[in-house]
Design a protein that fits this description.
This protein is mostly helical and 333 residues long. It has one domain: ABC transporter involved in vitamin B12 uptake, BtuC (Orthogonal Bundle). Helix content is 72%, strand content 2%. The protein contains twelve helices and two strands, in the order H-H-H-H-H-E-E-H-H-H-H-H-H-H. The protein has a two-stranded antiparallel sheet.
């Protein structure tokens, strides 16, 4: 009951924050919806990165700090290979590279450290992060590279007859949202309908029980790291197409941390919802809260978008430490 009450309070608070600008007349509805859509599109990209965290944590109990580096490495692979071959072929080869990477990580990192403390595995993935960042830039270079998806960069105006001035949307944001929806749908089918997906769910529920019925953990870890690599590839291509492939792409993983805190470390739907909450919340805060804070406290303004997600995650840790959909942990003594 207490958990449900806290969840209702949080949801009501979030909804109140979304409708406050409209209720106070802070902006016209068209501009409000434009900001809302921008936040949703950013949240979709955060969700893609957070999915990699959730998939690996569910199957192996490892918090994969290297997910951001995987996003950068996959994007670099596609960008550089696309310079000498068609984009679709470069993408397929990059998928193969991420699968090979999964084999290497399982053989050289996970297998020797099986049954070790979670902190040891976390430090191992931190080492993988620095290696992958350095290795990727050594092989592919450290300049800013472009990924051309063939989508026009110019925004389009919609709903001009409904809202004064219309609403601007970016075509690449819409394509990113569609790609994310398709990817999540495929992951849902994979986990629910395939034998391998059911085995992954069994491993997530209980490693020892899964081993006792003959499910090989080593193979499962390779599969789940490969799937996380493909998710990182999709996120990297989308981010690279929007901003260019550069080292800062790997830092998007830091923004995915509040997402998994909000949604829960073991919940795929939670990763999606958490990403949308973070994306919308930070855009709304930057656009509507920043001007109020500047006037009230005589601040320089700006920057709220950089720290809003972490403050929101801290509040969730105080009220719902397991997240919206995470498994509640109970220690029996």
């Amino acid at each position: 009951m207490k958990r449900n009450r806290n969840l209702i309070i949080l949801c009501v608070g979030l909804l109140a924050g979304l409708i406050a600008p409209l209720a106070t007349g802070a902006s016209d509805p068209g501009f409000y919806i434009e900001v809302l859509l921008g936040g949703l599109m950013a949240g979709v990209l955060y969700s893609l990165v957070a999915l990699g965290f959730v998939l690996i944590f569910k199957a192996s109990g490892v918090f994969n700090f290297a997910q951001g580096a995987m996003v950068l490495f996959a994007a670099l692979s596609v960008a550089r290979m696309a310079e000498v071959m068609p984009l679709w072929l470069a993408t397929l080869l990059a998928v193969g590279i991420m699968v090979v990477f999964a084999f290497i990580v399982e053989r050289l990192v996970l297998r020797p450290l099986v049954n070790q403390d979670p902190v040891v595995l976390l430090m191992a993935t931190l080492g993988v992060t620095y290696f992958l960042n350095g290795f990727g830039q050594t092989v592919w270079g450290s300049d800013i590279y472009e990924i051309n998806l063939g989508i026009a960069k110019e925004p389009v105006m919609i709903l001009q007859s409904v809202f004064q001035g219309g609403i601007l949307i970016n075509k690449d944001d819409v394509a990113a949202a569609i790609a994310a929806v398709v990817l999540v749908a495929l992951l849902a089918l994979f986990f629910q309908k395939t034998k391998t997906g059911r085995a992954l769910r069994a491993v997530a529920d209980d490693h020892l029980a899964a081993q006792s019925i003959g499910i090989p953990l080593n193979r499962i870890w390779v599969i789940v790291w490969s799937v996380a690599g493909v998710v990182a590839l999709v996120a990297g291509v989308i981010w690279g197409a929007k901003l260019g492939v550069q080292f800062s792409v790997s830092q998007v993983a830091l923004k995915a941390l509040p997402v998994v805190i909000l949604g829960g470390f073991t919940s795929i739907p939670g990763a999606i919802l958490g990403g949308l909450i973070i994306g919308v919340g930070e855009k709304m805060a930057e656009v509507f809260l920043a001007p109020i804070a500047v006037k009230a406290f005589d601040l320089a303004g700006g920057g709220i978008e950089n720290w809003f997600a972490y403050v929101l995650a801290l509040l969730f840790l105080l009220v719902l430490p397991e997240g919206l959909f995470g498994e509640k942990h109970i220690d029996r003594v």
